[in-house]
Amino acid sequence: MKRASAPFGLCLLWAWYFFLPLLHAAENDPEQLLRTSQAAIGKRLPDLSFFNQRGEPVSLGQLRGKPLLINLIYTTCNHTCTVSTRSLAVTVAKAKAVFGEDAFEVLTVGFDTRADTPKAMDYYARQQRISDPRWLFLSGSEETVKQLMELTGFVAFPSPRGFDHLAQVTVVDREGTVYQQAYGESVPTPQLVEPLKELILGLPAKQNESTVDLLVRRVRFFCTTYDPRDDTYRYDYSLFVGIFIGAFCILSVVIFLVREIRQNKTFSRD
Fold first, then answer.
1. What global pTM score does this model have?
2. Which among 107, 177, 197, 237 would be 20 to 30 A from 150, CA to CA?
């Protein structure tokens, strides 16, 4: 009986050795990860509770009313998370230069709940040299973080390096609904700024917003343009200046023609 069990054990070991990598590869199929991520668009985030890097309670409900950028990391990550966070910091600075310092919020959430304590998140923030008061580094319970991951379409798998996961930033609208996803360790600037532009400047009138404020916001929406030469956004009012000049020229021609017609009629009567 012992002799028979030895080959069986070898077969199990062989199956484990050869098929486990295949199962792991299937879990990490890029197309499936992308589908999972995209399927989160349109989902509404509940009022989940976390702790910020100072150990203070923070709920998603407190942040309603402004767009959110959410990226998930684990603090013991030595490469991808660090690169993506620093790249995000550059893009956030460019967006705030156009929309204002308090136009949106940024959340970095630790998904390795055993290690990503408020103290660890605070250290991670200081490592990345991020001191923006509107950028919160959050810790949460395993259940809460798992729920956030599912609702934002973020998937992570244990690996020999720690975790394998999609480099993703989730854009959430002011009502707490997932609006768009952006991908990559270094997300191209327009992938994040364009959805923020739509959410901050392009939405219908806000409650108690005056007609003048709405008009100014719409003008800013059309005049906020991307310059690929220096990878920044700026206000370009040349379109409206051109429209104004064109309208002025057309009006001048119309006035001239009306005067000419009136003068011709006067001469004809004489």
1. 0.73
2. 197
